[in-house]
Design goal:
Helix 1 packs across helix 11 and helix 2 crosses helix 4 (121-140). This protein is of the alpha+beta class. The protein has helices at residues 13-21, 42-52, 93-96, 121-140, 165-168, 204-213, 218-237, 282-296, 299-314, 316-320, 323-337, 356-359, 401-413; strands at 9-10, 29-36, 61-65, 70-74, 82-83, 101-106, 109-115, 196-203, 245-252, 266-269, 272-273, 344-351, 362-369, 377-384, 387-394.
């Protein structure tokens, strides 16, 4: 493979916040897993990693903490595969400075964990499916064809995969989005040493039928039910005036602004359930969420939000402030104007379609998120082979949200009133 990569990259617009928020007991990390038909051979998996890591120089990478800036640096040796500890574990500064991408195996399962400053869900899926395809070729001689979404491991990285698309789509017409505090579920300040996951699997067609009954998308249905569940919990725990419940829904900006970047290129929308919406029928809540989501997904709105963030990134004072001070200031901004403005993150990676030659080996696929800093929960969704899996991750001291949320989904699927 011809080396067309740089020795280091300026971090993208989204990475700045993920790196600023990173601390000993929290890094914004996600995990993708595939369950194969047979136990994993770790030696073969390591050979696959050896083949693939140079193909994705901005994903198989580490971070350098300079005097004034972060830098994203391709690793020069492949990461070593590890036995799966069974749960997401925080990446410390030493690991972020060495390699912020993990490869795990256990039984029939292959998993990867990536620090969000490396890439978003789109880039993570591309790197993961390419890695598993390489493993299947080596292990079984599988004839898996290369494609745009499953590149040859010997192919040089394409320039368009390495760009910071936020800079390309900066319209120079920034728009400030007003901040509003949202209800925070209890338990965010407890033990963060381990993460537990509760899973809910359902035929994707069943959930799609339920969404169609209300003339909304699956995303709208799940986000609305999540908001209603959190509002129910708030009513049980909070005395006095209720706060709004806001759902942070990440959006793949490539669907709005064409790009092939494998770096971060996502943002979020914030549909909101107001206290006065309590007690309204599900159909009314769904109409409200659907309208909010459609309005926030408008290209003009998203372009203005991108420009607002790029303007901050390019401000002269952001270039001259020493990095330790910059991190402290950005962490304060996140603490007051970031996570407190939403109640939980609900991310849907959509349907993952693999080549038929891979599907015969891959039985199941799912994704999970690190719980947030202030709220003890995270929710991630993925569909594969007709099954939609919802993983609610949490710190061990809590366990209320998934019970309420999954119970409401069950009632909707059975046509019962919520």
């Amino acid at each position: 493979m011809k080396n067309t990569t740089c020795s280091q990259y300026a971090i993208d617009n989204a990475s700045i916040l993920f790196l600023a928020q990173a601390r000993k007991d929290h890094t914004n990390t996600f995990r993708f897993s595939m369950v194969l038909s047979e136990d994993i051979c770790p030696d073969t998996l390591q050979r696959a990693v050896d083949q693939v890591y140079k193909r994705f120089p901005t994903i198989f990478a580490r971070f350098r903490f300079g005097a004034f800036h972060f830098h994203q640096i391709p690793i020069t040796a492949p990461p070593q595969v590890q036995r799966d500890p069974g749960c997401l574990i925080t990446m410390g500064r030493k690991e972020l400075s060495t390699c912020a991408y993990r490869v795990y195996y256990e039984g029939k399962r292959i998993s990867i964990e990536a620090f969000h400053a490396l890439t978003d869900g789109y880039g993570a899926i591309r790197s993961f499916t390419t890695l598993v395809a390489a493993y299947l070729r080596l292990r079984y001689g599988a004839q898996i064809p290369a494609s745009k979404t499953l590149p040859e491991t010997q192919q040089a990285p394409l320039p368009q995969e390495l760009e910071d698309a936020f800079l390309r789509y900066n319209t120079e017409k920034p728009k400030r989005i007003p901040s509003r505090y949202a209800y925070q579920l209890p338990g965010g300040n407890g033990d963060r040493s381990t993460v537990r996951t509760s899973s809910y699997s359902v035929p994707a067609s069943d959930l799609l039928d339920a969404a169609h009954r209300y003339h909304v998308t699956i995303n709208t249905l799940i986000s609305t039910v999540m908001a209603d569940s959190i509002m129910d919990i708030q009513k049980q725990h909070r005395e006095g005036k209720l706060q709004p419940v806001r759902i942070m829904v990440p959006v793949d900006l490539r669907r709005i602004f064409p790009s092939e970047t494998l770096r971060n290129f996502s943002y979020y929308i914030l549909p909101t359930m107001e206290p006065q919406d309590t007690g309204k029928p599900l159909s009314a809540l769904l109409r409200s969420f659907s309208g909010q989501i459609q309005a926030q997904l408008q290209k003009e709105h998203m372009g203005a939000v991108i420009s607002n963030n790029v303007k901050l990134q390019n401000a002269w004072y952001m270039r001259v402030i020493p990095l330790p001070i910059k991190r402290a200031l950005m962490r304060l901004v996140c603490c007051f104007f970031g996570e407190p403005t939403s109640s939980v993150t609900v991310t849907n990676l959509g349907n993952v379609s693999l080549p038929e030659e891979m599907q015969r080996y891959v039985q199941h696929m799912d994704v999970m998120l690190t719980p947030r800093m202030l709220s003890p929960y995270g929710c991630a969704i993925l569909s594969y082979k007709g099954t939609l899996t919802i993983n609610v991750s949490r710190f061990p001291q809590q366990g209320e949200l998934e019970e309420v949320f999954f119970r409401k989904l069950d009632r909707i699927l059975h046509g019962d009133p919520v």
